[in-house]
Amino acid sequence: MGATRPACLALILFTGVVAAKPAVAASATLYVATNGVDSVDTRCPKANPCRTIVRAVAAANAGDRIEVAAGTYDGSVKIAKPLTIRGAGPAATIADGRGRGSVLEIGGAVVSINGMRIQNGNAAAGDGGAIRNAGILRLEEIIVASSRASRGGGILNDTQGYLFLAKVTIDGNTSTAEGGGLANLPGAHANLVDVTISNNKAVQGGGIANSGTISAEQTLISANTSGSFGGGIYNSGALQLRNATISGNRIEAGRTAAGWGGVGIATDRGGTTDLLNVTIADNAASGQSGAANGGGLYVGAYAIAIHAANTIVARNGAPQCSIARQPGAAKSLSGYYSIAGDDSCGFWALDFTVDPNDLKLGPLADNGGFNRTHALLPDSPAIDHGWNAICPPRDQRGVARRTCDVGAFAYVPPAGSAVRQPVNNFLSSVSRMVSSAWQAVIGFPAHLWRAVSSRLSWPHLRWPSLW
What we know:
This protein is mainly beta. 12% of the residues lie in helices and 37% in strands. The chain has a 25-stranded parallel beta sheet that branches. The termini are far apart. The radius of gyration is 26 Å and the shape is globular. It has four helices and 34 strands. It has two domains: 25-202, Pectate Lyase C-like, CATH 2.160.20; 236-467, no CATH class.
């Protein structure tokens, strides 16, 4: 009995030490309102809110939450601690940089911002007009507008930064170099869901300039302008688009044929672009001299590859695609169950070329969902022509697909009406019948056939785990 006492005593002392460990402080909520007062000794309680977001951030501890009431708030805000900031909505709560540097700078912290409009930043000699992110930043229900910078007129996602955008509009920003709306630097990662990037301008990459990794779905890139490459997007990194529309982008006048290309998307300098159920339409250059360099897609001499499945590239400035690969290089633009407006894209046998007048693609319009889309009109050859095996279950609007249509929009026929089957779907059906018969002859297991077929059909495409 006596021999066990030291062990018991040690256990009592040990448990006493554990019990004495200080508890982690609970996070607090701080408040900001236009009738508040900034004070160095305040913690911005609800009854006595702070006047500025800058003061609330300074008073907050890591993990705190800041509630910002409706109103307009001035100042450049620097955040280097984990925080959650919530406004009253982008139409009500406005963070205004007043043209004095970036509005928000995130450094090495996990930050979430919701329900605000962020505008009038001016980092013309630097990066990130409205927002510069060097941490892990989530933006939801945010408008980023009317800001300027050298790179990333709206947002710059710095090297090793992680950016998550949901229900975000980036509109009317300007870059004097690249990425009018968003610049995503090497080593940076950005995920976009329900995002509109429109009316931005840059020398390169009017909407987006990407040299890191971007995965985007249910996204619209429209009415952006570039002075050289990529009216909508310039990609020299890894770009994956699913259920997205690239429409109405422009390359401005005055450039030579050697100095511009890819009004919709330009890929070069080690870039890879994967497109699944994407619509690329109505993009065009104006006032260019010399040969055209791809109204829809441009594949630069140093691009790795573009893969397009269930994708429309049509009704853009001619030619639809331009491929500037080096002599003897492997084919760098591949299409699968896709539609092109001319034969410049060189898509595969199960794709086809249509006259733009026969495409039956509606104008960019509000057809439901977060952003605008090009609707498929009745009897469009894009209806039922897609590859079902890899088709997303919902379209850009979030509407369930009854079968796989080409492009970002899923056609829903009126009740009781029949859908005409395109000739290419007939050929696809014949191909499936032949492959099924061959499986029966050689006894090849169907699940292995599907695995081999998918591997042969699209060997390089790997969608991120988010999808």
